[in-house]
Design goal:
This protein folds into three domains: 2-80 and 170-178, D-Maltodextrin-Binding Protein, domain 2 (3-Layer(aba) Sandwich); 84-161, Periplasmic binding protein-like II (D-Maltodextrin-Binding Protein, domain 2), CATH 3.40.190; 193-279, ACT domain (Alpha-Beta Plaits, 2-Layer Sandwich). It contains nine helices and 16 strands. The chain has helices spanning 12-20, 32-40, 60-68, 103-108, 110-116, 128-138, 149-155, 208-217, 251-263, and strands at residues 2-6, 25-29, 46-53, 57-58, 72-80, 84-87, 98-101, 121-124, 143-147, 158-161, 171-178, 193-201, 223-230, 238-245, 264-274, 278-279. A hairpin with a 3-residue loop joins β3 and β4 (57-58). The longest helix is centred in the last third of the chain and has 13 residues, at 251-263.
Amino acid sequence: MLIAFQGEIGAFSEEAVRALVPGAEPVPQPSFEAVFEAVTEARVDYALIPIENSLFGSVHINYDLLEAHALWIAGEINLRIRHHLMAVPGATLDGLREVHSHPQALGQCRTYLRTHLPRAQAVPAYDTAGAARMVARRGEPHLAAIASERAAAEYGLVVLAPGIESNHQNYTRFLLLTRSPEAVPPGLPDAPAKTSIVYSLHHNVPGGLFKSLAVFALRDIDLFKIESRPLVGSPGQYLFYLDLAGAHTDAPVQRALDHLREISATLKVLGSYPGGRTVG
């Protein structure tokens, strides 16, 4: 079973793949667009993407890609993120002049960097594990990366400072994507179902958003999250992403979605899936 993820071996996304579907083979991809293309074109069986972080919020590009592709959310997992400062053997904290990592990782560790490495320059990279691999390849003791413990082991680096994230309640939620609602991998947790949808409203309808949310309140359906994204090509209009309790096949959810179709301009069900466990 092949599961695409964005980044290099040692990325947190790879760790999430192994935690959600043990025994699957993670397949690294250079970008989120490439991840979606790999599963859409059937070069892999599934894809795993980050969708939100408890400290830095939503991964907006993946919301846009979910709307643009005909894929189905089949599962989710919440992964505890622990950032480690690593460098080549022999490097010291005092000698560091550059720290490379993904912008979110740099942001999540800014308190440590400001306090302990005020003279080091934070350098953005496209991926945490990719930053670790670059530091290992260059072999220069003034370079460091922020990445996972697995990345340090994978690329032969030494952890100079473990757990340097500013807030240890640092979790990323990942979504498992497939081409078909029937193609769900075995072994996912037996948990109450969630459903994710995206919809848009008719332009200039007073109270439109309130009415769209009321279809769920009227049926006592819990909403877990709402996210808005600009509707490309229509300034001032938005797409609304919603996570709600229940499967799309449950009668109350079906009635709510039928009601929503009557008052919305577009509606797409992105998937129904078991609520994910938290690991790490």
